[in-house]
Design goal:
By secondary structure, this protein is an all-alpha fold. Helix content is 87%, strand content 0%. It is flat and about 60 Å long.
Amino acid sequence: MKKITDERLVLQNLKNIRIAYIVQTVGILGILGYDLVTKGLDGMRENPLWLVFIITTVISAYLSMSISADHENNKVNPQKSLSISLVVLVLISTVVGFFVSLTDGFTITNGVIVGGILFICGLIPIVYIYNLRKKRQDDNIEE
């Protein structure tokens, strides 16, 4: 099989893949919606399609981040963006953890655990986008 070199064909191929991805996602959401209605939230999350949907959504988000980092204005300072993002993440994690600990049936330990998990889950994309911006900045300096 030969590699496609015509840009129009490459673009059309990407559009076809996008359409197939949309149809697949709508199908998965339909099946999960049916499970939600018939079996409830726990039944829906027991379906293996739930894991497939979550994984593809996360991968799609990370791929979109790499494109958006390349599309950003070159004047964005990666260190400043990292600092702002970390401050906002710490504030959000702290507030959510505090409110979880105030909820009936939950303890301070639960609040710390939920806040910590939220912090770690937020930290990963923040560091990833920082590395993308830093790499782009280093590439621009070399040119």
